[in-house]
Structure formats: C-alpha cells, structure tokens
Design brief:
single chain, alpha+beta, Diaminopimelate Epimerase, Chain A, domain 1, cytoplasm, Diaminopimelate epimerase, amino-acid biosynthesis, isomerase, diaminopimelate epimerase activity
Length: 299
C-alpha cells in the first residue's frame, strides 16, 4: 500500500476530502487507492484526495517547476486527485482544507500570522487565516485564487440528459475549466436551480478540448450602489459528480456574474454553506470555512 496508515477526513463547505501529510514523499497514491479511499460505501468517502507534500515529491511536477514554486515561497504542495483517481489542476475548497490541516500540523501560521503559500498544479495560491467570520462560519480562510480567463459570454449551449430545456453557458478558466450558466435570465428553459438533476452529467456544446465542471446559478439580489450581490449555485464536477461546493466553480460563477451585471462582490450560497467571491480585473479571491472532521487509522 502506498498510502500511510493514518489519514484524516476534512471538508470545506461540504466539499469533502481524505487528506494526509507526506513530508518525505513516501506515499504517492495509486488511482486504485484514491478510488478506494473516496468510495462512500467501501472506503472513507470523499470528493477527492489531498496529499500535503513538498513540490519536489510530486511525480508530474518538473524540477524546474518545483524550484519556481519554492522561489515563490511555496514550501508545501497540494497534490489533489479526483474521486475517480484522476489528477486535478486545482481545487479551491481543497486549498482551505489543506491550509487548516497544515495549520494544525504546525506547517502554517494561525490568525494574524504570515500568509500560507501553497503550491498547486495551477500555481501558487496564497491563503490568509481569518478565524471565525460571518456569514462564512468557523476557521475561515481567504484565498487569492490568482488570475482568471473568461470566454465569450453565453457562447455554449448546456443541457442535462433526461431534463427538458437548455441554458447558455460561459467558459471560465480558473486553472481548470468551467462552464457557468446563469438561470432565470431570459435565456434558460431549464428548471429552477433547486429542481435540477445534477446526478446526470451536463452536456456542453460545442465540446471543449478537455472535460469541464458545470455550474448553474440563480441571482438572488444585486445592488449596484454597494457593488454587491447574492446568488445561489449548484455544480457538477468532472470526475466526481454533483458536490456540495466547488471553490474554483464559485470563482468562475463570480466572474460570469460580473460579466452579466457589472458587480464585483458576491455572497454565494451552495448546498454546503455560504462563501464570498471578490473579483478584480487581474485576479479573484474566495473566502470560506474549512473543517477537520476526524482521524482514521486504516486496517
């Protein structure tokens, strides 16, 4: 077995993970081991697996990239795998769960301390520990998710097999690909957000070169005077299915909402909780909670 005897369960607004530390690079998981650990019936259960290790211990990270991550202050790396065993470029919620885990292990500082710079396959993400903060909850972190790219607004047609109707979607690159559909805006004929069947994987046309996450959003309120808005989102993640939250998906949603409304600051409710997304021209920030659930000793 190439995983340690002791692992932990964590979640960030319901996006849940199996997580463990591997400072010496001894425990790179196989795809079968990831699928076993993330299985909700035969394993521990999770939307993915997080291995906290150093950049030089990640097989698909080159020596030059590892050196560059260290030069940017990222001593630690979030090696994230989807529940199906596939590698993933990024997981916004996973960065918060990883930062809290690193904090408890003494690898990261607490509230008021130095920001935690975490290497990922999508570059360095910087996290600031904020403690408890409404409306996000306990052990809140603000993550600088870095630069973003958005395609033409509403350039894609999105359908859900077995569900009548369609919606228009906007492509956003957050280091991983997203197509965001804002419902009830006059273009969508899909049911309301709460009524969607996201067990079935949505279909995006034209087809992207790589598989994508699909987000469905309702605008609940907006105030141009304060540059703030509220929205509700659900998401189907590639390699996982519907999850209670998706950090990069929340960021992609805020970016799409900015394009449609001109509003930069959003409070977004997902099935796992409430988070804040703040969009700038050159980067996006995600603020939300993280939770360590327990320690598991594997037999």
């Amino acid at each position: 077995m190439s995983i340690p005897h002791t692992v932990y369960k964590a979640h960030a607004t319901g996006n849940d993970f199996v997580i463990y530390a591997d400072p010496d690079g001894e425990f790179e998981p196989t795809a079968d081991e990831v699928r076993f650990l993330c299985d909700r019936h035969f394993g521990i259960g999770g939307d993915g697996l997080l291995r906290l290790t150093h950049p030089e211990h990640v097989r698909d990270v080159s020596a030059d990239t590892a050196a560059d991550l260290h030069a940017q202050g990222a001593e630690w790396f979030m090696d994230y795998r989807n529940a199906d065993g596939s590698l993933a470029e990024m997981c916004g919620n996973g960065t918060r769960a990883t930062a809290l885990f690193a904090q408890r292990l003494g690898y990261a500082q607490g509230v008021g301390g130095e920001p935690f710079r975490l290497g990922t396959r999508a570059g360095v993400k910087t996290l600031v520990s904020l403690g408890d903060m409404a409306p996000c909850g306990h052990d809140v972190f603000r993550v600088d998710m870095g630069p973003w790219k958005r395609g033409e607004t509403d350039a894609f047609n999105v359908t859900i097999p077995g569900t009548d109707g369609s919606a228009r979607g906007t492509f956003v690159d957050m280091g991983n690909p997203h197509v965001v559909s804002v419902l009830e805006d006059g273009e969508s004929t899909l049911p309301a957000v709460e009524a969607l069947n996201l067990v079935t994987k949505p279909v995006v046309a034209p087809v992207l070169e790589s598989d994508q996450n699909a987000e469905f959003v309702r605008i609940d309120s907006q105030d141009a005077g304060t540059d703030t808005g509220k929205a509700t989102m659900r998401v189907n993640e590639r390699g996982v299915g519907e999850t209670l939250s998706c950090g990069t998906g929340l960021c992609a949603t805020g970016i799409t909402l900015l394009a449609k409304t001109g509003i930069h600051h959003w409070t977004i409710t997902v099935r796992g909780g409430t988070l804040q997304v703040d969009v700038r021209d050159d980067r996006v920030f995600l603020t939300g909670s993280a939770t360590l659930v327990g320690r598991i000793d594997l037999l």
